[in-house]
Amino acid sequence: MGFLRVVSYNAGMTLRDELLATVASLYYKLNQNQSQIATRLDMSASKVSRMLKEAHERGIVEIHIHLPIPRDFALEQELIDTFGIKDAYVLQTTDSSEHPVLIRSLGRLAATYVELIVSELPDGQSIGASWSESVYATFDALPEKLARNISVVQLAGGVSAYGFDYTNLSQSVAAKLGGRHYLLHAPCAVERPDMRDMLLQEPMIRDVITRAGQVALAICGIGAMSEDNSFVRSGLLAWEELQALRVQGIVGEMCGTFYDLDGYYAHYDINQRTIGVQLATLRTLPRVLAVARGVSKAVAIAGALRGGFVKVLATDDLTARAVLGIGK
């Protein structure tokens, strides 16, 4: 919501200011169009347009927009310009904001984008999700019965780091969207590449991976190479293994694939043991939303942006500044 105010007369106003205020009042308060104002004041419509612009610039017209979820539009534009992404949603924080509150607020902000896209999708389309704390918060914020016949596809194998019940979560999201849910019945990582290859030959797993490459919207978290990494917390990787990956130059993980700061991933052996939609496939999807926050994730987010895996980023202002500090 928002409101517009035309500044009232004061002794410091000039005759020019008065004329600008008159034009602005006719336009904003009486809802007259520029042609009507031009006729009334005996001037051209183009001059009316210039005067409205001048009224804004001189502070005669003030516009106040009240956002239900505070956003930093300047940082959003900087992220768009720096990394060439399609859009960004940056949550404006306060010094007293704590992680659980920030995650819920970020989820609400990201959900506004998801709701916008899903409401326009034709029946029978699918969206994909790589489960994480932030993605969970996004889906939790979506309204009930948002759409009809929109299915949900799991984009990466399972982890138990945050105690998610994937079946119930997928069912809940699918219920909101009125469609089916397609679970990827495999862990996100296995011990050996041959085990991964064998699992990928299973018809049910192969079917979900194929569906993952066809979704109209992918919603993903981004994992950092820290103690909080979901692979470590779930026991899929030992802490020592994660440290070894960091030594190799790996900075983050998305949909089960690890990558470095430049977005390269193909030559890292760990990715021969993980199960999920390929990052090369993510690049081809029409919409990929990454929801991630925390300064500790800045390098991982920057790598994902550099790699072109993300088309829309939802984060907070502190994280956005840290990501921009790393640069394109």
List keywords for this structure.
328 residues; alpha/beta; Arc Repressor Mutant, subunit A; Rossmann fold; 2 domains; seven-stranded parallel beta sheet; 12 strands
Task: Walk me through this protein's architecture.
The chain is α/β, with parallel strands linked by helices and 328 residues long. The chain has 14 helices and 12 strands. The protein folds into 2 domains: 2-65, Winged helix-like DNA-binding domain superfamily/Winged helix DNA-binding domain (Arc Repressor Mutant, subunit A), CATH 1.10.10.10; 73-326, Rossmann fold (3-Layer(aba) Sandwich). It has helices at 15-28, 34-41, 45-57, 73-83, 99-118, 133-141, 166-177, 193-200, 203-212, 230-233, 239-247, 279-284, 298-306, 317-326, and strands at 2-6, 61-65, 87-91, 126-130, 150-154, 178-182, 217-220, 223-224, 250-254, 257-260, 288-291, 312-316. The two termini are 34 Å apart.
Question: Helices, strands, pairings?
Answer:
Blueprint: E1 2-6, H1 15-28, H2 34-41, H3 45-57, E2 61-65, H4 73-83, E3 87-91, H5 99-118, E4 126-130, H6 133-141, E5 150-154, H7 166-177, E6 178-182, H8 193-200, H9 203-212, E7 217-220, E8 223-224, H10 230-233, H11 239-247, E9 250-254, E10 257-260, H12 279-284, E11 288-291, H13 298-306, E12 312-316, H14 317-326
Parallel strand pairs: 3-12, 4-5, 4-7, 5-6, 7-11, 11-12
Antiparallel strand pairs: 1-2, 8-9, 9-10
